[in-house]
Amino acid sequence: MSKKVLVLADVRRQKLRNVTLEMIGAATRIADGGEVGVVILGKDIKALADGLGNYGVDVSYVVDSAELEHYNPSAYRKAFMEAVRDFEPSAILMAHSAVGRDFGPVMAARLGAGQVSDIVDIEGEGDDLRFVRPIYAGKAFTKVRIKQGTTIVTVRPNNLTPAEAGVGKAGTVKELAVSFEQPDLATMVREIVEKANTGVDLTEAKVIVSGGRGVKDASGFEPLKELADLLGAAVGASRGACDAGYCDYSLQIGQTGKVVTPDLYIACGISGAIQHLAGMSSSKVIVAINKDPEAPIFQVADYGIVGDLFEVVPMLTSEFKNVLADR
Q1: Which residues bind FAD (predicted)?
Q2: What CATH code is carried by the domain that includes residue 273?
Q3: N or C terminus of the chain with fewer C-beta within 10 Å?
Q4: For 45-97, what is each residue's pLDDT tens digit?
């Protein structure tokens, strides 16, 4: 039975993040021949709706307002509900990001909907769809099915197959005029001051080079950064490295940091505490570099190198340079 599935686009700095295409691909599968809609909220984001029909989107809702420049649950709820009333979805997809983790429950409560958080896969077909999500720090998986009513799902980035261009749909763009009065907004975010970060976004990176306490100090991240730059990778860190002051907490990967699922994860000087494994054990290929042959990280690694990272990482960088130079 075909359905109507609505996707909340994940927007950062006036750009659609890759997880949006992953959600559109999932929405197409869930809709099973039905309609797929996308909601784009923000400021100066009208152009983002162009061409989404070619990815299989039937209708794109755009709410362009200064009040939506930064995430505000009250403003998002009012704007998103306008699209929900018009589209009447049976399922809603959001990214399992800082926004989705907060806004998903907000909308579930508002709509009286069932919610499934942090899914990494979808199994089954038609009305027998099951959403797969990790539990116990990734040691086990549950398969959840919502039997009736609206379903709200948050999707972990880098796990589902993204929609591809070439569908050929024209797609409809609807600009929604939403007014935000003071009683609607309990709080207002006027400005967000971010630390400068020109590197690859950790949560969407295909390759991550990560360091732990084994880097010894802040300068120990330099060879890791050199390797990451060569591979077009993001640099991450364990909580131990962050707590020691070797790097900023924005790089932290783990149970209390970011959860990542890259194609390649290179762990340098990371012992492999369960809290760190919870954030990266779903990576497709894991390479561990550690002087301790008994380090727990080797239990989840696909490839293990027992050695000093300050010797091994420069050797890897040199070899990668040679391989890339031959291409």
Answers
A1: 213, 238-239, 252-256, 269-276, 290
A2: 3.40.50.1220
A3: C
A4: 999 999 999 999 999 999 999 889 989 899 999 999 999 999 999 999 999 99
Tens digits of per-residue pLDDT, 150-201? 999 999 999 999 999 988 888 899 999 988 876 667 777 777 777 656 567 8
- Binding-site residues sit at 213, 238-239, 252-256, 269-276, 290
pTM: 0.86
300 and 226 housed in the same domain: yes
Q: What is the CATH number of the domain that holds 133?
A: 3.40.50.620
Binding site, annotated residues for FAD:
213, 238-239, 252-256, 269-276, 290
Check residue 197 and give its pLDDT.
Answer: 60
Say if residue 18 is in the same domain as residue 149.
yes
From residue 141, alpha-carbon distances to 52, 73, 137 in Å are: 32, 30, 10
The pLDDT, as a whole number, for residue 147 is 85
Query: What's the residue count for the chain?
Result: 327
Please provide the average confidence, as pLDDT, over all residues in the chain.
92
